[in-house]
Amino acid sequence: KNQVEQSPQSLIILEGKNCTLQCNYTVSPFSNLRWYKQDTGRGPVSLTIMTFSENTKSNGRYTATLDADTKQSSLHITASQLSDSASYICVVSARGSNYQLIWGAGTKLIIKP
Amino acid sequence: ETGVTQTPRHLVMGMTNKKSLKCEQHLGHNAMYWYKQSAKKPLELMFVYSLEERVENNSVPSRFSPECPNSSHLFLHLHTLQPEDSALYLCASTPTRASTFYEQYFGPGTRLTVT
What mean pLDDT do residues B23-49 have? Predict the structure, then answer.
């Protein structure tokens, strides 16, 4: 069964600190993996999209990594800011899956001053 | 703003009411989607429209009825809902045909509460 699992479920860190969020998936055959940021009461916004051949991709202070062999991805946030408080969702698509994306339940990140 | 708008942003309705959610995208996209997001659960795909034709219906109860009059507008008509239907309903769009290859652009969602 295609699944995406994220850890931790929630995380609280102090402003200025770094953190890493994890995503494990069992989706096969793999097409691409995305990380979305969702602010409370808003729709998700894409941070990165990674294909099979990409190991690392950065978007400002956000860096995503992908290990297609172990089926793991991580999202590293550097020098966190209060505006980084949000849910971060890992999403995987399978080749030939047409419209279906396999969504994780998300990690809720809280940045404290 | 992402270029996808949704109205209303909040809706409270009784189980016997009929209401509609509206989504409009200003991005020139050709595919639109409805998702349901319940607390602490992954997004659930409900309906997909590509060039105004419904191409996916994920076994959604008939009390949810979608309508796509053109490629810019998408509606979700609601009637005789249940309390477990309370959730955030998200609309999204993609540039060309419905596909998992393209980035999805989401609206802000409608927070629905069924009493």
Answer: 93
